[in-house]
C-alpha cells in the first residue's frame, strides 16, 4: 500500500507535466517525479527491524537493510541536481528570447 | 508504520499545493518542503547516506529554482473548452494508469521483507573484500564502480550542457 | 564600495565564520566516507554549498576572486581524470578494471579500504567543482534588456 502512495506522488508529477502551461510548473512536476522514484527505490530496500548498512565497532550481526538501492539513489539524486540546472538554464534562455514562460505563446512564435 | 504513512501523505499534500498555487515562489517553497520531508522519510527507512545527500541537494535546488523565477504570479490557468477537455482526458488516463499500477504493485514483495538476492553477498563479504565499513560506499565505489563511472559521465555532460547554453560568447 | 555589494554586515560576518567550518565538514565527510555516512557525493556538494554561501552573501565578484569558474571547471575535470586513472591502474596492477589494488589495511581505521578513499576524493572534487561551476554560470547569466529579474 505504501508503494501505491509513492506511485500517487509520481502521478501528481505526471499530471503537472501534462496539464500545466507554465514551463517552471512543468519543471516542478519533473522534480516531484524524481522524488517519488527515489522514495520508491528506498522503500523497496527497507527491511523490518534492519539497521543502516554501516559496520560499527563492537556491534556484531549483519541485520542490515538493502544497501544496493541506497547506492543507486545517491547517484540519482546528484544527477537530478545537474539535470535540474540544465533544464533551468534552458528555461532562462527561452525566457530571454520570448519574454514568457507560456508554452502556447512560445509555440505561436515559432518560425 | 503510522509515521511513514503520515509523512508520505504530507508529501502528497505538499506537492498538490506546489502544483496548484498561483504564486510561483510559494510553489517553489512547497516543493522544497516535499524534498525535506523526503529526507526525514529516508532517515526513518534507515538510509542515512541518502538522507544527507538529499538534504544538501534540496537546499541547492531551492536556490537554483528561486534564481529562475522572474515573474511572481502564474496566470495561466485552464480556460476554454478545448483545454478543459484535454484536462479531463488526461485525468481519465491517469486514473486508468493508477488502477493498472495498483494491480501490478500487488505482485511486489511485501513491504519490510525485501528480496535481497544480490545484496546478501554484498553484506556478507563487504567488509572482508573491500575493507570499507560503510557498505553503501563499498557498493558504490567497489562492487558497482561502473555505475559510478557512468554517473560521473552523465554529470559531466549535464554541467557542460548548462554552461554551453548559458555562455555569453557565441559563434559568429 | 565593496560594502554595498551583497547582503548586510550581519550576514557577512556570520558567513565569514561559518564558511570555513562548512568546508571543513565537507572535507571530513569525504575523508571518512568509508567509515561513516557520507562519501564523495554529499561531501562534494557540501563544499560547493560553502562557496555558494559566499557567493550569495558577498556578491559574485568576491566569490569569483576566491574561486574562479575556470578553476572550478578545472577541478571537475581533474576529479574525473583521477577517477579514470585509478580505474585504469587497476588493470595493470590488480588485473581487471576497477580492481582494488591497494592493501586493505585494518578495518574501521582511517587508512583502510584500499583505493576507496582516493576514489572518494576524486568524486568529491568532481561533484563540488561541477556544481559550483554551474551555479556560477547561472548567477552570472543576466536576461538581456532587464536590470534585475524582479522588475516584472
TrEMBL record, chain A:
A single Gene Ontology CC term: plasma membrane
Residue stretches in coiled coil: none
Localization (cell): Cell membrane
Domain of life: Bacteria
Bilayer-crossing regions: 26-46, 71-95
Record flagged with keyword Zinc: no
Membrane topology according to the record: Multi-pass membrane protein
Alphabetical keyword list: Cell membrane, Membrane, Transmembrane, Transmembrane helix
Chief localization: membrane
Record-linked Pfam families: Oxidored_q2 (PF00420)
PANTHER family tied to this protein: ANTIPORTER SUBUNIT MNHC2-RELATED
Protein family according to the UniProt entry: Belongs to the CPA3 antiporters (TC 2.A.63) subunit C family.
Record-given protein name: Cation:proton antiporter
Organism: Aerophobetes bacterium
